[in-house]
Amino acid sequence: MRAIGIEHFGETPALKEVPVPEPGGEVRVAIEAASTNPLDLAIASGALAALGEYRFPLTLGMDGAGTVTAVGGGVTEFGVGDRVFGQFWSRPLRSGTFAEVAVVQAAPAFGALARIPDGLPSDAAAALPTAGMTALGAIDAMRVPEGGTLVILGATGGVGTFAVQAAAARGIRVIATASAEVAGEVRELGATGIIERGTEPIDLALRRLAPDGVDAILDAVGDRSLTSSVAGAVQDGGALLLVAFGVDKKLLADERIRAADYRLDRKPERLAELTRLATAGTIRPVIGAMLSLEEAPRALTGGVEPAGMRGKVILQVR
Ligand SMILES: NC(=O)c1ccc[n+]([C@@H]2O[C@H](COP(=O)([O-])OP(=O)(O)OC[C@H]3O[C@@H](n4cnc5c(N)ncnc54)[C@H](OP(=O)(O)O)[C@@H]3O)[C@@H](O)[C@H]2O)c1
Predict the structure, then answer these.
(1) Does 196 fall in a domain?
(2) Which of 118, 163, 172, 235 could form a disulfide with 213 if both were Cys (CB 3.0 to 4.6 A apart)?
(3) Is the shortest distance between the CB of 310 and ligand 1 below 6 Å?
(4) Residue 211 is part of which domain span?
(5) Is the CB of 114 under 6 A from ligand 1?
(6) What is the pLDDT of residue 307?
(7) Which of 142, 158, 137 is nearest to 221 (CA)?
(8) So what's the pLDDT on residue 61?
(9) Looking at the structure, do residues 30 and 90 belong to the same domain, yes or no?
(10) Domain match, 137 and 100 both
(11) What is the pLDDT of residue 102?
(12) What is the pLDDT of residue 248?
């Protein structure tokens, strides 16, 4: 079968012909659609070697959706013919979603797997897991009250587009960073204030839009100088949460605010909540590009420019 993988950490991901994986005590899924995340390249580089367990050759791809074609011994949660989606992060990880077929633990050690709700197409389902779960978890962790103000840096990306919608649905006022070209689209997601990238320094624009400060900032960009420049806008006791990791030690030590790196947790619970929100139409995935499986390496290395908001890049596998 066709798969995008690596033989060792550090290798450039490439299209390969590999054997169809057999499910041990796992679920085998005919993948219909997958989506890319910065996490995929981080895994391929070896940066996350200590986090998890890997087998080579390794097929990449965390997020995917498809139909169960076989289940291994002991699997009771799913049966042949079920439509499933999730973050396919098994332990060990060998068989990701950038392939015609993937095998995944029914309860993935580091991920989550669930049935696709009726009516949700597989490309939309594949867009949801990692970025959607992260957005929901980060919003919970920041504890912004209804009516409070949240700034989202990187609002047009995978995590950001879900975070804008989920926060707005909770009655939180959202100020989002976006390029001028997509500002209108970000407003449609629920942002009421836009800071246009490149037009005015973000910290100055923030002081203008929220002179009394904000309850929280969600940083999905990870540019240290940007993070430091906006930290002063967080009100006393407010949150500065980095999903992009690398919070500065000085900020961590700042007792005035709650600065922290966020690592996605309670994934099955969050995938279930995401399913409910998507079914209710409260959130919808923003799909910036639809590509074939063969184009995954280009997407992973930033070679795909979205038509509008970046959102999620979908790989249509079949
Ligand atoms: N903590 C966790 O458990 C967890 C889980 C998932 C993801 N993450 C991390 O969270 C980060 C975001 O993930 P993602 O999937 O949302 O990535 P993404 O889709 O690539 O989005 C990145 C966003 O950052 C914006 N951006 C880039 N450079 C910028 C700058 N200099 N100033 C302002 N905005 C800038 C992009 O805007 P344009 O579209 O205009 O370029 C885009 O909105 C990544 O670092 C990822 O590894 C962490």
Answers:
(1) yes
(2) 235
(3) yes
(4) 133-261
(5) no
(6) 87
(7) 158
(8) 98
(9) yes
(10) no
(11) 98
(12) 87
The encoded tokens of residue 22 equal: 């057999």
pLDDT of residue 261: 96
Whole-prediction pTM value? 0.98
Residues 117 and 45 occupy one common structural domain: yes
Residue 275 lies in a domain: no
Structure tokens at 254: 């700042």
Q: Atom 2 of ligand 1 has which residue's CA nearest to it?
A: 263
- Probe ligand 1: pick from 165, 195, 265, 310, max atoms within 8 Å of CB? 310
Residue 191 lies in a domain: yes
Query: Residue for token digits 């989506």?
Result: 35
Give the pLDDT confidence score for residue 245 in this predicted structure.
Answer: 81
On whether both 101 and 186 belong to a single domain, the answer is no
Cα 223 to ligand 1 centre (Å): 10
- Please tell me the predicted confidence (pLDDT) of residue 247: 85
CA distances from 63 to 37, 91, 203 (A): 8, 15, 34
Q: Establish if 273 belongs to a structural domain.
A: no
Same domain? For 138 and 95 the reply is no
Specify the CATH number for the domain of residue 22. Answer: 3.90.180.10
Alpha-carbon distance 89 to 187, whole Å?
Answer: 33
C-alpha–C-alpha distance, residues 185 and 183, integer Å: 5
Successive 10-residue mean pLDDT values, the chain, 318 residues: 98 96 95 98 96 96 98 96 98 98 98 97 98 98 98 98 98 97 98 94 96 98 95 98 90 94 96 97 97 96 92 97
